[in-house]
Amino acid sequence: MSKVNIINRSPYPLPEYQTENSAGLDLRAVLDETLELKPLERSLIKTGLFMALEPGTEAQVRPRSGLALKKGLSVLNSPGTIDADYRGEVGVILVNLSNENVLIEPGERIAQLVLARYENIVWNEVDELDETQRGSGGFGSTGS
């Protein structure tokens, strides 16, 4: 378990895991009124949450599968990254990928937040790389 300092300026409870083994916590839309997104329209939706992550961690903002299937909504920069040194309000860039207008209600669960650990890169510049079976094969080069 990781402990994350958080300020909740939304009218909703802190995000919670929906099941015992859920990887993501659901984020809620903080809106003054219902928002309508037209097809291919995008909007930055605030959550009222501010957090301080530990160095070596990031929070990933990901789409909710139910919203993607039922409404055609996705997180545009998926996964969105919240860096450990960011202290601003968590926002979600939602995009309507359906052919119909979609309504987003205040308090609706719009995305999920997943905590992930990472390592920083130290470059080691070389003149050539080791050979592999795949080599320089691109997308789809490994079969179906």
UniProtKB/TrEMBL annotation:
Keywords: Hydrolase, Magnesium, Metal-binding, Nucleotide metabolism. Its EC number is 3.6.1.23. SUPFAM superfamilies: dUTPase-like. One of its GO terms (molecular function) is dUTP diphosphatase activity. It catalyses: dUTP + H2O = dUMP + diphosphate + H(+). One of its GO terms (biological process) is dUTP catabolic process. Pathway: Pyrimidine metabolism; dUMP biosynthesis; dUMP from dCTP (dUTP route): step 2/2. Residues 13-143 form the dUTPase-like domain. It is an enzyme of class 3 (hydrolase). Substrate binds at R64, S65, G66, N77, T81, I82, D83. Its cofactor is Mg(2+). Gene3D superfamilies: 2.70.40.10. This enzyme is involved in nucleotide metabolism: it produces dUMP, the immediate precursor of thymidine nucleotides and it decreases the intracellular concentration of dUTP so that uracil cannot be incorporated into DNA. Belongs to the dUTPase family. HAMAP family: dUTPase_bact (MF_00116). This is Deoxyuridine 5'-triphosphate nucleotidohydrolase. The gene is dut.
